[in-house]
């Protein structure tokens, strides 16, 4: 090797480096050469080390293992005479035979660096666990109850989708049918299950923030942008799944950007100049009629086709009433555990009522109805669900208000108008609750316009949010 202008060869410069201890032993473990830094650490002269058996010089040496196995040991802790170091011992091989071993260790400040790295790794791992928890899918196909032929069909199709881990899936269905459950289950059952599942609620993020939320931004991208920039959901989900919930609400400007990402599999961060490549599966869900939205120019046709590669249509509950008993028993168990109630039965009449109702809020409404019924039954000291616990509107025929209360004596004197108004108020309040206080969904479920719903809320003085 060429000497540098110090007059020393590169090898000498390396081996005489004051931060490195270096030693070479031959096949038998006899020290062939040692650098002066190592001699200083050993507090020995060259004559006391060279030509001696390494096991006698440094009893804890790893060089003998390397000579025996022919395999290098890299990055182990090495402490000698009070010095803490990180060491490597590598075999010297000639004609496929181990002819010796070269060991070197870096020390002093490096140890601090190791502490630092260890601390950082600890921190990184805690964050990793937190992110994994935050961005993980909680449901599997086993959590999706329903063995009606319709549900079996959708589940089968969803399981097929899970197997094709890069296929885009579009999940449609009325509010509360279980679209989110399916998105989770598909991720959990796919090859991507160990990687993140990141949900983005396209309806909940203001248009101005959606791009940064999806694709991230670089430092200084805009006033108020976080130092060091920010990862977008697509980057966070790399290797896993991005679940674009309420995709029908995505603003048109973002739709064009999303289309490019789906086609090119890359994007640019806000304010960034380099494309970022990601490998994610996109699952999208909506309860709105996307085809109609396309016709009204509210949704890009090309994006619709790009998303609609594999379509899962979750049937409304009223079209698979045979699932209701199974769901009821499932929720009774689930809610007993959560509410600490002891409901263990449901009367035939109550089950009939649940099976006959048309469930505009679907499974979510069924779950909420049961929750309320179970609390009521429990408050009355009972453990059997009866029709009187069920706040179902059509139950009026049987002498109860939608809130589940039986008619009082004085009710007979009530005018039809008052009774209807009371019914309307309860019905709207229930629907709002069952649609998660989402006015658009509630209006849709009620079959009325949102502006009309607002008028009714005002008229009946109904609080339009969860307390
Ligand atoms: N098949 C099912 N088995 C068990 N629970 C279900 C099922 N379907 C829905 N649920 C329950 O109903 C609730 C609503 O489901 P989910 O959030 O998936 O509905 P969604 O279709 O996404 O509704 P939205 O359009 O309003 O967002 C869930 O919390 C879940 O507990
Ligand atoms: Mg949903």
From TrEMBL:
Occurrences of domain Sigma-54 factor interaction (ranges): 144-375
Transmembrane segments: none
Keyword list, A-Z: Activator, ATP-binding, DNA-binding, Nucleotide-binding, Transcription, Transcription regulation
InterPro entries, per the entry: AAA+_ATPase, AAA_lid_NorR, Homeodomain-like_sf, HTH_Fis, P-loop_NTPase, PAS, PAS-like_dom_sf, Sigma_54_int
Any one GO MF annotation of this record: sequence-specific DNA binding
Cross-referenced SMART domains: AAA
UniProt keyword annotation of Transcription present: yes
Highest taxon in the source lineage: Bacteria
PAS domain location: 23-52
GO BP terms, alphabetized: regulation of DNA-templated transcription
Protein name listed in UniProt: PAS modulated sigma54 specific transcriptional regulator, Fis family
Organism: Syntrophothermus lipocalidus (strain DSM 12680 / TGB-C1)
Lineage per the UniProt record: Bacteria, Bacillati, Bacillota, Clostridia, Eubacteriales
């Amino acid at each position: 090797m060429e000497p540098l202008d110090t007059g020393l060869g590169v090898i000498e410069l390396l081996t005489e480096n004051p931060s490195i201890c270096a030693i070479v032993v031959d096949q038998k473990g006899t020290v062939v050469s040692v650098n002066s830094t190592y001699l200083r650490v050993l507090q020995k002269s060259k004559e006391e080390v060279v030509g001696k058996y390494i096991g006698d010089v440094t009893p804890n040496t790893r060089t003998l293992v390397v000579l025996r196995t022919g395999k290098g040991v890299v990055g182990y802790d090495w402490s000698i005479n009070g010095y803490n170091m990180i060491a490597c011992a590598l075999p010297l091989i000639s004609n496929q035979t181990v002819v010796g071993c070269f060991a070197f260790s870096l020390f002093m400040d490096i140890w601090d660096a190791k502490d630092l790295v260890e601390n950082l790794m600890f921190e990184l791992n805690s964050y990793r666990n937190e992110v994994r928890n935050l961005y993980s899918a909680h449901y599997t196909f086993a959590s999706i109850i329903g063995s009606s032929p319709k549900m079996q069909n959708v589940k089968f199709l969803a399981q097929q989708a899970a197997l094709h881990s890069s296929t885009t899936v579009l999940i449609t269905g009325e509010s509360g049918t279980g679209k989110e459950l399916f998105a989770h289950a598909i991720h959990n059952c796919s090859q991507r299950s160990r990687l993140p599942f990141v949900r983005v609620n396209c309806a909940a993020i203001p248009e101005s923030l959606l791009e940064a939320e999806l694709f991230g931004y670089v430092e200084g991208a805009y006033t108020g942008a976080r130092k060091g920039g920010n990862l977008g959901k697509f980057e966070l989900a790399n290797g896993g799944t991005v679940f674009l919930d309420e995709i029908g609400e995505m603003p048109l400007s973002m739709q064009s950007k999303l289309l490019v990402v789906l086609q090119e599999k890359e994007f640019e961060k806000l304010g960034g100049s380099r494309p970022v490549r990601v490998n994610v599966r996109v699952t999208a869900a909506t309860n709105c009629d996307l085809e109609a939205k396309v016709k009204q120019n509210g949704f890009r046709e090309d994006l619709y086709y790009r998303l609609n590669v594999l379509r899962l249509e979750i049937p409304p509950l009223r079209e698979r009433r045979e699932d209701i008993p199974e769901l009821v028993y499932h929720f009774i168990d689930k809610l007993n555990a959560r509410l600490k109630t002891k409901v263990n039965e449901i009367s035939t009449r109550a089950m009939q009522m649940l099976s006959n109702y048309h469930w505009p809020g679907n499974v979510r409404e069924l779950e909420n109805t049961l929750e309320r019924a179970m609390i009521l039954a429990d408050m009355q000291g009972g453990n059997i669900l009866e029709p009187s616990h069920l706040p179902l509107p059509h139950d009026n025929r049987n002498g109860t208000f939608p809130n589940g209360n039986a008619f009082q004596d004085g009710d007979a004197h009530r005018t039809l108008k008052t009774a209807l108004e009371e019914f309307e108020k309860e019905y709207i309040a229930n629907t709002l609750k069952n649609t998660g206080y989402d006015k658009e969904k509630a209006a849709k479920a009620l079959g009325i316009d949102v502006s009309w719903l607002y008028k009714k809320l005002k008229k009946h003085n109904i609080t339009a949010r969860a307390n």
